[in-house]
Structure formats: C-alpha cells, structure tokens
Design brief:
The structure is a single chain. The chain is an alpha+beta fold. The protein is 38% helix and 28% strand. The protein has helices at residues 8-20, 27-36, 41-53, 91-94; strands at 25-26, 57-70, 76-88. Strands 1-3-2 form a three-stranded antiparallel sheet. Strand 2 and strand 3 (76-88) form a beta hairpin. Helix 2 (27-36) crosses helix 3. The radius of gyration is 17 Å and the shape is globular.
C-alpha cells in the first residue's frame, strides 16, 4: 500500500519554509499567508504541528513581538508575544529538541 499523498497545504507550508532561508519563517506568518489564500487558520495550524511531529519542519529560534493590549482596568500595556521560527527539517537542528527533561540534576 502506498503512503498517503501529502496535502497541498503541507506542500505550501514546506515551500514557504524553504523560501524563507536559513533564518526560517514564523509560524504566524505561515498561518497568515495561507489564510489569505483561503485556508482556515485552524487547519494550517494543525498541518504545521503534523509536519513538526513528522520531522518535516524544525524549530529554529524564536521572535518576539511587542503588542499593545488593554487590560481589565482599561489601561494599555505592552505585552510580549513569542513565536517560534521554522525551517525545513534539519538533523543538526533537530538535536536541539533533545532536552533531557526526564533527567534530574
């Protein structure tokens, strides 16, 4: 039996990651780009997580955006939002994910 064909959305996500180069592309940028092409944001997000799980994408650092948000008290405050960057799968970068969380110091 043949493996399932990749969904066109997966190909688009991988293409965006490849075009971004070594610095990678922010997950939000991918979601926004494909949502503008008519794909539901939730579907794009699920496909990104599936590609990460299958080791077709690799996290490659993060970016920080500062946004202004009005709090419950009505005051506007600057809030940091962190977003990870992604590149096509890389064996070298994949090793960064071995965090050894099960080991105690």
């Amino acid at each position: 039996m043949l493996p399932p064909m990749p969904a066109p959305i997966m190909d688009m996500i991988l293409e965006l990651a490849e075009l971004a180069g070594a610095d990678g592309i922010a997950m939000g940028t991918v979601v926004d780009s494909l949502e503008a092409r008519g794909f539901p944001a939730a579907q794009v997000e699920r496909e990104i997580w599936a590609l990460l799980e299958r080791r077709r994408l690799t996290p490659n650092g993060f970016m920080c955006r500062t946004i202004k948000r009005r709090g419950a008290d009505g005051q506007v405050a600057a809030v940091r939002v962190y977003e990870f960057m992604m590149v096509p799968w890389s064996a070298a970068l994949d090793r960064q994910l071995d965090l050894a969380l099960d080991k105690t110091p």
